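Subject line: Sequence and fold of a protein, written as structure tokens
Enclosed: The protein record, placed directly beneath this head.
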Amino acid sequence: MAAPVPPGDIRPNNQRNSGPPNYFPGSQGNANALADNMHNLSMNRPPSMMPPGSGPRPPAPFGQSPQPFPQGAPSYGAPQQGPSPMARPGPPPPAGMGRPSGPPPGAQPSGFPSNVPLGRPTGPPSSQPPFGSRPSMPGGPVAQPGASSSGFPAFGPSGPPPGARPMGFGSPPPPVGSSGMSMPPSGMLGGPGPVSNGPPQVAGSGGFSRGPQFPGAAVSTPQAPYAQPPASPFTRPPPQPLGAHPLSGNSPLTASAAPSMPPPPATFPGAPYGRPAVSGSPYGPPSGQVAPPPLGFPGQMQPPRYGMGPLPNQSMTTIPSAMGQPGAPVPGPSRIDPNQIPRPGSSSSPVVFETRHSNQANPPPPATSDYIVRDTGNCSPRYMRCTINQIPCTVDLLSTSGMQLALMVQPLALPHPSEEPIQVVDFGEGGPVRCSRCKGYINPFMRFVDQGRKFTCNFCGYTDETPRDYQCNLGPDGRRRDADDRPELCRGTVEFVATKEYMVRDPMPAVYFFLIDVSMNAIQTGATAAACSAIQQVLSDLPEGPRTFVGIATFDSTIHFYNLKRALQQPLMLIVPDVQDVYTPLETDIIVQLSECREHLELLLDSIPTMFQESKTPESAFAAAVKAAFLAMKSKGGKLMVFQSVLCSVGVGALSSREAEGRANMSANEKEAHKLLQPADKTLKTMAIEFAEYQVCVDLFITSQAYVDMASISVIPTTTGGQVYCYYPFSALSDPPKLYNDLKWNITRPQGFEAVMRVRCSQGIQVHEYSGNFCKRIPTDIDLPAIDCDKAIMVTLKHDDKLQDGAECSFQCALLYTTIYGERRIRVTTLSLPCTNLLSNLFRAADLDSQFACMLKQAANEIPTKALPLVKEQAINSCTNALYAYRKFCATVTSSGQLILPEALKLLPLYTLALTKSVGLRTDGRIDDRSFWINYVSSISTPLAVPLVYPRMISVHDLDAKDDEGSVLPPSIPLSSEHISNEGIYFLENGEDGLLYVAESVDSGILQKLFGVPSAAEIPSQYVLQQYDNQLSKKFNDVVNEIRRQRCSYLSIKLCKKGDPSGMLFLSHMVEDRTAGGPSYVEFLVQVHRQIQLKMN
């Protein structure tokens, strides 16, 4: 019999030998990495990425490390019961239907398969080196959890498992100056604050809150080893003296914000990783006590003084005074140097980021940068990131700032391979400790009082009784003596094992149903063969065991199910001819265990392309087939993956081609064109809501060469937590590799089923709206039939009361989900941020990446209901309003000829301009392309938001001449035709697609090395990447494969030649140039400055 487990204990004996918790299969040399040589793919048969039969085994949960309780911990509590699922935060839901289920025999229930890429193949951002090529740290490898060098609780096993957080580094000197991302240490200098059970205070220099900690002394050498990282995008120069002035002449920027090169880095106070003494509270002053106002510190925003130069947290662009006058002519580029205007910087070395220091929240590094998180109380910014890292105390202050207050939540995001895994805690039958009033989960910011017998909730302020078996005495510092031994009391992200009182039915099994289009067009274009080949290759990636079920069906104008039972000599086709009132054959015949039907399934997938090769049926009963597949899955739930090639034309939910109508009306009636981006009717939406109710998630793989009414059919994956993949126009030569990789990642990425999510906020703030791919049936929760590591949800917030200056405001995301091996979990992510009454603090604490992601998602939500010019105008106004508020209330320079930009938001005008020229806001594209863009944006994560509209461009022709200095990727190039040589070759990627541009005067030797031909005219238009035996070709292949690994996308490559229409497609992405769709970057800055001047006057 198993030994008793104390409540709140980490689950024992749940560690598998299948690899470290942060196993990173995207790394080079890993057998499970995304395909590095997919260009060698045969026509319709992707090579197996794994040895035959090497399917995933139940591993330790993704990003989690359930391990034995450390020695010396209290040994009290009740024995552990079996795994018990749950359904929804808050009061237990009513009982529902039950269903037999259980983990595979002999295997411990787990979260995700062993071959799941547990360090998201997005990897480092643009201009970052790959994980596999980073320089080693001084003094050897990083320390691991449990190592004696660390004073933090050893949640992991006694040995140094890979993937642990880095060891401590020496303390750098105190900070000099401020940055646009620093925050005032509210209440820190007014004496010792109240105590709590929260994260221990890390001894620092000067007592100030610090930002990301660099692993060593900072120098300006680019791409140096860990001991010498270059300047980071979020480091700032020291403050200028009060008498500093702007540069003279026509130089547009002051020396404090030259965007063409990173500013000198600011150092941050640090401390070793050993356990320090604790003082202060992560929550703020106790009830009834008002925190002293923040005192001045180096670099804090000073009152405006005439004659002052720009402060270190602002950029300044000099614009001739005539530009500030209404009706003034737009100046030529010679008036402003385009090379000196703000552009994204480059940073190659990762930084170590502590989420809290000295009981103060640290502002996170940019989402697009490379960083390693050390969770010291607040959650990692990968899981939850706020648009402003200080919360305005009043709604008036927020309105004045012109910025949005929102959370970007990505609850299953992949951690960095070097980060500590998320801990799994089991409280036994009683379940996790929660506030009895608001149902908030225990977290580091709940304060224990009365010798630990009571605790005060950091969300509603209610003082609750501590369960008797969870009580612990408080130390002299007021913290629980066991706080450092309990992940839920010292970590911002933790995962609880759910109990039976929260479940409405047994956890659902892992069901995968494949629905394939076999209409005439799909057969002739090779889409059917490509789908069958991809499915057959990923069968080995499905989780093994009796809880994995599969089914398959095909459709044209009728629906064909297949009986896959082993008792039959071969699969048996079952035809459903009625596509108006669909039905399904016996469920047990068509959805069977993978272990029982694998041979029949492989035989069937080999046969389907030839079975229908003589088909002359052009019609498609897509909606009827999806409905019939749902009826087969209804009792179990699961993932439905649909491969569609033509417009749904018959049966229930049939659609008509609206694209021709749209083209005719686009120019004549611009205000009505957006209606084509709305669903044709409510039929598919009604179906999707029913799918979500029964936990069926639908993913669409669109392999079309014509219009399919993406606006209507995308409603299904959007409502069910699924995703749309588009391959237009589908090519049997170049698209099968991407189709295979997309399907493989869809199945193997970390994910959960039948999930429910809720976000809770402290008093004074409440959730206004959720935005993403989900179904919402009650106001407080969102239902997700499936959720994965790539899906992000935007949560907009609003004030319902005034907050206390100097206190902290907490946010908590609770995600309840079922792992693919049938264990119910509650992932709790908590973030606590300071409140402020100062407008300057809001701009200093603004998070550019999440601000822009919020703007992007709001624009995408409005496109189907508003005319495009109005959506563009709103995006520009959103940018202008924020910059105007900073110029009026915070800037220190009074010259009307200078455009003042807050340092944290200096790239907002560039990204706003790029948004207005993006696919979703252009009128010259296909309706389906715009619909796909809208759907893609709805669930996009924060790190991928900027690359979508401002892609990365690199030069290819000189790769062999560049010294990569340890990085596979060369520096990126600004998106301007001024940086494109007529003798060059350039590669541009936005995370989904890649464009390879060949200019007209490229040297024949370079063409021979890259393409195997001496002239551009001889390069085939259906380009397939190949590797030749030379250094340039090898380096380009390495670059493409590294980008694919980073983006977690196969990134199909389209060849573009100057002078061809494809060349114009490439040049349309030069968002800094003047185009028919908008002004140049310089002209846009002038336009923004003019609007600010008009508001000022």
